[in-house]
Amino acid sequence: MAKEIQLRPKVNVSSYIHFLLNYRNKFKEQQPSIYLGFQEFSRKCSEKWRSISKHEKAKYEALAKLDKARYQEEMMNYVGKKKKRRKRDPHAPRRPPSSFLLFCQEHYAQLKKENPDWSVVQVAKASGKMWSAKADIEKQPYEQRAAALRAKYHEELKVYHAQRKARKNSLQGLAKNQRRRSGQAKSDKAGGSN
Q: Which stretches hold the DNA-binding feature (predicted)?
């Protein structure tokens, strides 16, 4: 039995969009031969929307509330497709930290010591403010260190890709040899039984 594909619920629309759809249908019925461009039609709709009474707008707002309730209910029952995260190769080199992250690593302990009741988020915000307040000259040592780490990372990445390619080629070669051997063994058995 095949799995039933569950489509994501259609997003709720605003009161203005409900009005727009209704107005478009009425306009097509009343004047089927007239074609208005998107821009002109949108301008006409927005003028009409501003001119309608609050009582009439309330009707569209009620539709929007019902639509929102429908959407929320459907979303509660909707089981989304789980995205599979690609597993990181443990042999792959780790990406280097940016200059800002190097700065944060250096100042985290100091900020946490001065403000022990702060959460990680608060410390990160304070680090961000400190980083923004620094002049470009003060940021330069961190940027130089980050550039050196980035260069080292790219070198390690080249080596990693070369090793990975060699490993892949050797595995493909082994698989070919095994297929060839098993093919020869089959032909030997077939030839020997005659």
A: 9-79, 93-161
Cβ-contact 131, 100 below 8 angstroms: yes
- 151 shares a domain with 186: yes
Contact 178, 170 (CB under 8 A): no
Instruction: Report if residue 94 sits inside a domain.
Output: no
- Give residue 181's identity as a one-letter amino acid code: R
Find where tokens 């058995």 sit.
189
Among all chains, which residue has been given the structure tokens 């031969």? 33
- Taking the model in full, what pTM does it have? 0.47
pLDDT tens-digit series, residues 55-78: 999 999 999 999 999 999 988 888
Q: State the Cα torsion 179-185-191-193 to the nearest 10°.
A: -130
| 37 Rama class: left (phi>0) / alpha (psi -120 to 50) / beta | beta
**What is the tally of structural domains in the chain?**
2
Query: How many CA atoms does the CB half-sphere of 115 hold within 13 Å?
Result: 13
Residue 8 lies in a domain: no
- Does the CA dihedral 118-122-126-131 come out positive or negative? positive
